[in-house]
């Protein structure tokens, strides 16, 4: 029984849904999104496992990706990249402050 429950819990953690848009990710608001760059295409897994991640961008032809944190993102319509923004309302707690993203 413990194994089945563990699989169900892990299954929920790996199934984040995203909205895809054209271009590199940019912040939806005036606040600049914090970025981390990588020379691989593994950003979906990184973002799924990070509660502060709000999206990621992939440039397959460039073999690069970036994760974005702390503010909702959308694509900037440029070529060569695709932006994947986390779906649904997310609540982030940072210290004593709480941020709700819709």
Name the average pLDDT: 77
Specify the helix fraction band. Answer: 10-25%
Q: Strand count, sense and closure of the main sheet? A: 5 strands, antiparallel
Spans of at least 5 consecutive residues whose pLDDT stays below 50 are: 1-14, 89-102
How much beta, percentage-wise? Answer: 35-45%
Cα separation of the termini = 36 Å
Instruction: Work out the oligomeric state of the chains in this entry.
Output: single chain
Number of strands: 9
Q: Name the overall outline.
A: globular
Structural class call reads alpha+beta
Name the strands of the widest sheet in spatial order.
1-7-4-5-3
Total helical segments: 2
Q: Using only CA atoms, what is the Rg? A: 15 Å
Element order: H for helix, E for strand: HEEEHEEEEEE
Short description:
By secondary structure, this protein is of the alpha+beta class. The protein has helices at 2-13, 43-48, and strands at 18-22, 25-27, 34-38, 53-59, 64-69, 73-75, 82-86, 90-94, 97-101. The strands form three sheets. Strands 1-7-4-5-3 form a five-stranded antiparallel β-sheet.
Folded structure, characterized:
This protein is α+β, with helices and mostly antiparallel strands. It contains two helices and nine strands. The strands form three sheets. A five-stranded antiparallel sheet has the order 1-7-4-5-3. Strands 2-6 form a two-stranded antiparallel sheet. Strand 8 (90-94) and strand 9 form a beta hairpin. The radius of gyration is 15 Å and the shape is globular. The termini are far apart.
């Amino acid at each position: 029984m413990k194994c089945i429950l563990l699989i169900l819990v892990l299954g929920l953690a790996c199934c984040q849904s995203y909205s895809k848009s054209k271009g590199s990710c940019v912040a939806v608001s005036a606040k600049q999104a914090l970025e981390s760059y990588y020379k691989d295409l593994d950003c979906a897994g990184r973002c799924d496992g990070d509660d502060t991640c709000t999206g990621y961008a992939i440039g397959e032809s460039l073999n690069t990706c970036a994760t974005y944190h702390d503010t909702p993102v959308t694509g900037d319509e440029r070529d060569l990249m695709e932006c994947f923004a986390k779906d649904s309302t997310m609540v982030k707690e940072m210290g004593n402050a709480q941020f709700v993203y819709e």
